[in-house]
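Weekly puzzle thread! Below is a chain. First person to post its structure in token form gets bragging rights.
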Amino acid sequence: MKRRVSYVCASCFGLTLICLVGLIAIVQIRARILAQNVVTETDIVYGMGGSEPLKLDLEQPRNGKGPFPAIVLVHGGGWVGG
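Winning reply:
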């Protein structure tokens, strides 16, 4: 009985591993397609925090006429680091 349980567990692990590898491949393909359709600008200074420049990264569609919707992500670094 123990061998059957071990075989089932090994089969589940193998199937999970195959699914995970497939999912990673899909994500990588989607990322390449997205990169072709998006323009990224990094480290744009939008203000000053004392003597420190406050920077943002901007990603926008390569083609199309705006205005486009915006998503703002705020880093959870406590404004101390990161």
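Puzzle host: Confirmed. Bonus trivia for everyone else. The chain has one helix and two strands.
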